[in-house]
Amino acid sequence: MWNRSAFSFSNQGRISRRELVKRATALGLSLSTAATVLQGCSTGTLESSMNFANWASAETATRTNIDNALQAFENQNNVQVNNIGMPFDQVLTQLTTLINEKLTLDVMELSGNGPFALANMGALANLSSFVPQDWYGDSFHNSFAAGTYKGALYAVPFSITPHGFWYNKRLMSAAGLNPTRPPRTIDELNQAMAALRARLPKNSYPIALDTSATEYALIGFWPWIWTFGGNPMADDGNGNVSINWTDEGTIAAFQWLQDVVRKRWSPPNLAIKAERELMAEETIAFKLDGPYLTGILGSLNPAFKTSQQVNQTFAVTTTPLGPGTNAPVTCVDIHNLSIASTSTNKELAWKLIDFLTTSAAVITTFLIPEGGMLPRSSYNSDPRFYGRYYADPISQAFINSVIPTMRPPAFGPYYSTAAIRIVTALQAIANGATVKDRLQQLTDEVKSLYGV
């Protein structure tokens, strides 16, 4: 339980790092997995300070890089950035608790349903007046839609990370498949998986489908639902969601999932982290995952330390076409930045967001090493900017093929709660539950959550 007597960091007046850490500890921020939960990048006492909540500083792989980038911002603007680290899978929960405790988190790193849940609480500022018009014209398809709720913009893109269809060219060749022609349809995918299952060792699998009971598993399964023609949660654009988890396409997608697991084409009950480890061991042939997998593979296997080494073994294309689609589709998966509605210096908060999305100090030391695509489209392609960092085939596949297929699900105030019910059903079906009956139960559960 959070200590109510300890809240209220203010970005007004003078506050030392020591006092900030003391209050953060009293609030229970040690729930983070990071060794240092809250860091002030400046060690002195400055005239102005602001709070930045993010998961980058709670992860060993990115902590140093984001700290260095924020140090550059502090030096340029004579401010202190209080860097509040939170584990990725706890960000929305911890932010909601802190916001309810009236703690101002001036800038927040969000993803998925985060902007929608917090905007519905009235916790986020409308950013429309801050965003320069040229950014809209220099953005990726649907990247601003991932932060727009009921017509207002509450979050801007920070890193573009949708899932593409990764395939291991060596495993395809070993199974007698053409590594230059990945599966383009569900039928071709099923045929390829049957060939791989017949030739792969027992501890290897043709594909990895996340069947863990985690919210992020749903981000990975939406493309398959849509590919089969399912549309179980449809938002009319005004926050009204129609719900039917027993439409023909959705039933087909979940039946396919169950069949894939039953045939041992996919390992059962694994979350995405474990699946990535199998990819790095070259015991998985196909997987939907983001562009950052290049770096993850290198961190897990010395044989993939460089982008060139990863590209020699792996390639990326769009999600195979299914019976319900005439174009490939993937789920919007974006890291966003937002400003708290309670921030008393929104101009300074926007200045930090502008720095995080445009500064070479951030782009070269944090965003590019992190592995996502940059928030402005031209930054990824124009050699005058950072195009040279994205010239490899995998990056080009994401930029030119995968990102244009992004589609947002029906994010909203009830989505995160519904997602847990959905992935619970997903796991049950993967383990053998009767598909239509379980999806009818899911429909009733989700409708009850939404009050429809």
Itemize the secondary structure elements and their pairings.
Layout: H1 17-27, E1 38-40, E2 49-54, H2 60-77, E3 80-85, H3 91-100, E4 107-111, H4 114-120, H5 133-137, E5 148-149, E6 152-153, E7 156-160, E8 164-168, H6 169-174, H7 186-199, E9 205-208, H8 215-227, E10 233-235, E11 241-243, H9 248-262, H10 272-280, E12 284-289, H11 293-300, H12 307-313, E13 314-317, E14 330-331, E15 334-339, H13 346-358, H14 360-370, H15 377-381, H16 393-402, E16 406-407, H17 415-430, H18 435-450
Parallel strand pairs: 2-3, 2-4, 9-12, 14-16
Antiparallel strand pairs: 1-3, 4-15, 5-6, 7-15, 8-12, 8-13, 10-11
Helix pairs in contact: 2-14, 8-9, 10-11, 13-14, 17-18
Rg: 22 Å
Which structural class is indicated by helix and strand composition?
alpha/beta
In spatial order, strands of the major sheet run 1-3-2-4-15-7
Low-confidence stretches: 1-17, 30-38
> What is the helix fraction of residues, given as a range?
40-55%
Sheet having the most strands? 6 strands, mixed
**CATH T-level fold name of the largest domain:** D-Maltodextrin-Binding Protein, domain 2
CATH superfamily of the largest domain: Periplasmic binding protein-like II
Query: Could you tell me the number of beta strands?
Result: 16
CATH arch. level architecture of the largest domain = 3-Layer(aba) Sandwich
* Structural domains: how many: 2
Tally of individual helices: 18
How large a portion of the residues is in β-strands, by DSSP E? 5-15%
The average pLDDT is: 89
- Which term fits the overall shape? globular
Instruction: Give the C-level CATH assignment of the largest domain.
Output: Alpha Beta
**What's the N-to-C terminus distance?**
33 Å
